[in-house]
Amino acid sequence: MTVHQPPQTVRANGIDICYEIFGNGNTEPLLLIMGLGAQMIHWDDAFCEQLAARGFRVIRFDNRDIGKSSHLTGGKRLTPLELLKLRFLRIPVAATYKLIDMARDTVGLMDALGIKSAHLVGASMGGMIAQEVTLSFPERVRSLTSIMSTTGNPRVPPPTREAAAMLMAPPPRSKEEFMVRFGQTWKVLRVGSFPEEEALDPGRAERVFARGLNPAGVGRQLRAVLASGSRKERLHGVKTPTLVIHGTVDPLVRPEGGKDTAESIPGAKLLMIDGMGHALPMRFWPEIIGAIDKHAHGAAAQDCRSPYGDHVSSRLLS
Question: 222 lies in a domain?
Answer without folding.
Answer: yes
